[in-house]
Design brief:
Layout lengths: L2 H7 L2 H7 L21 E3 L21 E2 L5 H6 L3 H17 L4 E3 L22 H16 L4 E7 L12 E3 L2 H8 L1 H10 L3 E4 L3 E2 L2 E2 L4 H11 L5 E4 L7 H7 L11 H12 L4 H23 L7 H15 L1 E5 L11 E4 L17 E2 L5 H9 L4 E4 L10 H11 L4 E7 L18 H10 L6 E6 L14 E4 L7 H10 L12 E2 L17 E3 L8 H7 L3 E3 L10 E8 L9 E2 L6 E9 L5 E11 L10 E10 L4 E8 L1 H4 L1 E3 L4 E3 L3 E8 L5 E10 L12 H4 L8 H8 L18 H4 L5 H15 L6 H17 L5 H4 L6 H12 L1
Length: 797
């Protein structure tokens, strides 16, 4: 039967039931119509299939699978083709476990380096995020397994994420926070899109007409279903009206009955319900190709090798003053608890149970020889100070030829559920580094972290390798790079600032419990730092290799173009060619990066925006001609006046480089378009000079085109009030404690002290941020909506 045939055979009750989950991970099926129940499960850097009916975030509750590097590392590869291969492997593992949809990738923009889930997102730049997610989706879906592009949209921090209102202007929305989603939708058609928890400009993402219907479906042509993040549903009937097709997880019969009641009352039409149900049916039917085929034999060892390859290209050599690669016959001292208890993935719902796990110390011993390698723990992962450990590390350092010092963030510093409080490494690690003193001159620091950190010792050590969270095979990648068996090729997909005070969003991040204002607008990441010439620790696009690369012969390859004044429209393509030469003595890879900037824009525009790139692999002495293509959108800005992408007639700077700050070649091109160059928009004067940071009420109101909306008040309490809102009331405290007990049990499974502490913090944050409307969803046996309404009446009396 086709999806339409099944739809016509359904009762109204069956239709309503299909719009919500069967349980935590399964969709409803219709047995009499031989429509199966299918399973979805977490990703995105591995398969996290839970073994029980409910969710258990704890590591040991999920099946063993391949744990690849997290998104912050994947994006640093700047290699979509490699990420697509990883996606194929993920799809095969899903098929082997009869999983029909893998919940990923996460592509939200890294607005601020403190975002607790930044390790799970690709970049501060929408082009990189869009390319990586497109490749990931294509790889997974090549195996007839669906994906879930998330979290749509403007979901850029964890604090109060379930109810906070993100206030953002339309131009910033279109240029920064939506393009990655747009590219992935148009180029890969993910089977599902997961809407975020938060509100956007006053409306919950789960029922946002502009985002779900006007843009996603009508403008971008999305063909799949919109599924809620787990517990993101606000008003189920309004969700169906505005393009939300599936509520997850199960809400029992609660929202099924609300749909039926709305049909009976005329609030919801059968046609609107059928529209949602048909898309759910299409998803289930599409899933049958994989479920009905012969079982897939997954070669996990081969996937482990692929994970190592991905990790190799994800590592970024931030600094190297001729210390690396180290000689294999040197006396090596490895320092750091992370070298023997590696941090290989983030904390939260994306935790994978790896079928095997490498440790850096063992891999370094394998490469350099056990007799040449010694180890000193140096610090404790629980952050307790231990002077004896420091003294041992210092004493051993004096005897070593080269030191590999592992530093980074333990799970309690970055996790789903809560945001980071600072950019510092743990103090016990900084104390150790400071104590090493003169020995730092022969030290390479290897970082294991999911997001930028500050490095007060940057001038004291000759080498720094950013390994990010490299997955189960990240340790061998590190060892090979340190020894020179692999030439590092990663590039940062995010800026490492010198301090939080330099980040333009910091004064407004994460905002209040009920509202976050995106006052910095388009000035996110390198767009701000490059435009204002604000010094940074390491710039976007930066990454060293053991080779040297030269760029030459930048050419615009189209004989039809008069470079003095190109007639430019949406059909025009500009092809660039640049010659890249490996002038080093070993094979390696460079990333050619193309940035564009308008000369005299009428609207605030960054001096540099990444618009094209290509990773090129070259043998020693080899040259290659790299071709990049630019289109209308690459030169355009979003014009709010007529809701169109516009390119003004003006001069545009084309800049080719190895990072946003390492520009090697430039040229100027003049474009003649149907949009005359206008004078600067005086009402946005503060945004033309972002270095002044005068993003005050008047400026932000002008940007929004309306007064700044008031935040939702804490009282009177409603079903969207959070447990944190009522935690200090007499009625709310026992409720908070009871749910905390439930969520704490869900987090069980880790024995590592640091991981257990992170799980505790995550549980507290998730409970604090949970709206009361979600209690019947997550604990229907204990709470009903009627009981909650009675509680609200009591609280508000």
């Amino acid at each position: 039967m086709t999806p339409k045939d099944i739809l016509n055979a359904l009762t109204v009750e069956e239709k309503a039931r299909l719009c919500t989950g069967k349980d935590f991970w399964h969709l409803h099926g219709i047995e009499r119509l031989e429509l199966p129940s299918i399973m979805v499960t977490d990703g995105p850097h591995g398969l996290r299939k839970q073994s029980g009916e409910g969710d258990h975030v704890g590591l040991n509750a999920s099946v063993k699978a391949t744990c690849f590097p997290t998104a912050s590392g994947l994006a640093s590869s700047w290699n979509p083709a490699l990420i697509e291969k990883m996606g194929v492997a993920l799809g095969k593992e899903c098929r082997a476990e009869n999983v029909s949809v893998l919940l990923g990738p996460g592509i939200n923009i890294k607005r601020n380096p403190l975002g607790g889930r930044n390790f799970e997102y690709f970049s501060e730049d929408p082009l990189i995020a869009g390319d990586m997610s497109t490749a990931w989706i294509k790889g997974v879906q090549s195996q007839d397994v669906g994906t879930s592009l998330k979290h749509y949209a403007v979901n850029n921090h964890e604090h109060c994420r379930m109810t906070v209102d993100a206030v953002v202007d339309q131009r910033t929305l279109r240029e920064i926070y939506l393009p990655a989603f747009e590219k992935a939708i148009k180029q890969s058609q993910p089977w599902t899109v997961m809407c975020a928890y938060n509100k956007i400009n006053g409306t919950y993402a789960a029922e946002h007409q502009q985002l779900l219907d006007d843009i996603l479906v009508k403008e971008w042509g999305f063909e799949g279903i919109v599924v809620t993040d787990w517990g993101a549903n606000n008003d189920r009937v309004e969700g169906i009206k505005h393009g939300q097709h599936l509520e997850m997880p199960s809400s029992g019969e609660l929202n099924t009955q609300k749909i039926l009641d709305a049909i009976d009352s005329g609030r919801l039409s059968i046609a609107a319900l059928d529209k949602s149900v048909l898309r759910v049916l299409e998803l289930i039917v599409k899933s049958q190709a994989a479920l009905n085929n012969a079982p897939v034999n997954v070669d996990l060892e081969r996937h482990h090798t692929l994970a190592s390859k991905v990790a190799e290209e994800s590592c970024v050599l931030l600094k190297n003053d001729q210390l690396l690669p180290a000689q294999k016959d040197q006396n090596v001292l490895v320092i750091g608890a992370l070298a023997n208890n590696t941090r290989y993935q983030g904390a939260g719902s994306s935790k994978i149970n790896p079928f095997k796990l490498e440790q850096p110390l063992a891999q370094i011993e394998a490469v350099f020889g056990t007799n040449n390698v010694r180890y000193s723990q140096g610090y404790q992962l629980n952050d307790e100070s231990d002077q004896t450990m420091i003294e041992d590390a210092v004493a051993q350092a004096e005897q070593a030829d080269v030191i590999f010092l592992f530093a980074g963030l333990t799970p309690k510093y970055e996790s789903e559920g809560f945001d980071r409080q600072h950019l510092n490494l743990p103090q016990v690690q900084l104390d150790l580094i400071d104590a090493l003193g003169d020995q730092l001159g022969k030290t390479a620091v290897i970082l294991q972290n999911g997001a930028p950190v500050t490095l007060p010792f940057v001038d004291k050590v000759p080498a720094i390798l950013e390994a990010y969270l490299g997955g189960q095979a990240g340790a061998s990648a590190i060892a090979k790079i340190l020894a020179g068996d692999v030439n590092p090729s990663g590039k940062l997909a995010e800026t490492f600032p010198l301090s939080l005070d330099d980040v333009p969003s910091q004064p407004y991040f994460p905002g209040t419990t009920k509202q976050t204002q995106y006052r910095e607008a388009i000035w996110v990441g390198y767009r701000y730092f490059a435009h204002t010439a604000q010094p940074v620790l390491f710039p976007f696009g930066h990454g060293l290799t053991y080779s040297e690369f030269s760029f030459s012969e930048l050419r615009i390859m189209d004989d039809k173009l008069d470079l003095k004044a190109v007639s430019f429209d949406e059909q025009t393509r500009i092809r660039l060619q640049v010659t890249v030469t490996n002038t080093g003595d070993r094979a390696g890879a460079e990333v050619v990066q193309c940035y564009l900037g308008q000369n005299k824009p009428s609207q605030p525009r960054p001096a540099k925006e990444l618009r094209a790139y290509q990773k090129v692999f070259l043998e020693a002495g080899q040259s290659k001609c790299v071709e990049l293509e630019l289109n209308y959108r690459d030169f355009a800005f979003w014009c709010e006046a007529d809701s169109q992408w516009r390119v003004e007639s003006d001069d545009y700077h084309i800049q080719i480089g190895a990072s946003v700050e390492d520009i090697r070649l430039t040229t100027l091109i003049t474009l003649k378009t149907d949009t005359p160059l206008a004078p600067q928009n005086a009402t946005l004067s503060a945004y033309f000079t972002p270095a002044d940071r005068q993003f005050n009420d008047q400026s932000f109101s002008a940007l929004l085109g309306k007064p700044i909306p008031d935040a939702t008040p804490i009282t009177p309490y409603t079903l969207n009030s959070t447990l944190g809102d009522i935690a200090q009331t007499e009625q709310g405290k026992p409720l908070f404690n009871a749910m905390l007990s439930v969520f704490s049990k869900m987090m069980e499974g880790d024995t590592n002290d640091s991981a257990a502490e992170a799980d505790k913090l995550m549980a507290e944050a998730m409970v604090s941020d949970m709206p009361l409307r979600n209690l019947p969803v997550f604990n229907s046996q204990s709470y009903s909506e009627e009981a909650l309404l009675a509680l609200l009446a009591d609280l508000n009396s």
